[in-house]
Amino acid sequence: MKCETIYIALIGLVLAACNGDVFVDDYLPHGAATVLMSEDNRTAEITFTSDNWGIENIEGWTGEFKAYTSDGKETFLPLKEKELGVVHCKNEYVDFRIEKSSGNKLKVSYSENLYNQALDIGILTSNAYKMEDIRVRFAPTSKYRVDSVVYNWKQFYLFEYGMIDEMESIIVDNTLADAPTTITVYPYRNTRRELRFWPYSHGGNWEEEKYSLLFGDNLPAIVIPDIINQEKPVLGNTKIPFGIKQQYIAADVDKDKAVEVKIDAHDKRKVVVYNYLERYEVPLKVYASNPITGGKREFSAFLYSQSYINYLIFKEKMESEQYD
What we know:
Elements: E1 3-7, E2 35-37, E3 43-47, E4 54-59, E5 65-69, E6 74-75, E7 85-90, E8 94-102, E9 105-113, E10 119-126, E11 131-138, E12 145-151, E13 157-158, E14 164-174, E15 181-185, E16 193-199, H1 208-215, E17 221-228, E18 232-241, E19 246-249, E20 259-263, E21 267-289, E22 296-317
Parallel strand pairs: 1-3, 2-11
Antiparallel strand pairs: 3-9, 4-10, 5-6, 5-7, 7-8, 8-9, 10-11, 12-21, 13-21, 14-21, 15-20, 16-19, 16-22, 17-18, 21-22
């Protein structure tokens, strides 16, 4: 990591009836460039020729921050003239520190900016005579990558088999015919597998934007369990993007499977196609890291899977009798 040192020319301000230790006028010359920081230059040091200034506020930052004295005790802004201390600003996507490490040095450093655009802030410095705003721009940093996924198999829950969902229905009116008729249905034509993530903590919201900021637009794919023989979860080759709350993938069924259904002469039936549900839920933890900044994250979630296996076809009579 490079450390950028910025020397700002200071012009002495002479004031009548004031002592010589006054705030320096125009220490940030008009039109001076913004302090530009990037992933390769995440530390900058600004040097003054006077020590009679303090940190008034951080403009453009709406998140939480904490201020500390030089001996680590929590304090509040502003940091007074000649007072040494640190301001630590952090939210889920940005982490930076502003430190008055000595009388004439201001150090700015940042760990990450996961927003998709640069973050601009102003460090407002002041004393009894003047205020100056030092503009700083934090460039976006690299996104996180998934290192591993751990499922809590002890809390894996497979819902009881036997529930059915209606997939489609067709009304066949053969009342005027003197001979039976046959139609072809495809019981898996509309079948698909539904996956859902939700927060491990009850009452939380799944924020898709959060994961796109952390991982980027191309969300990492993680392996999810499949069910073998309606009882055993296994990790095979099925993957889905981690971060999308609700998504659908192809079910492991034969979409082209055809079944012939016979309707008798002088009969009117509603042919209803059902699929048997195969459902489970399981808690998981996703461990991620940032190879450039060194940051580490851990995400806890539940995964719900709803797929279909086997089918059932009813021929529902359109008059008083319900089923064939």
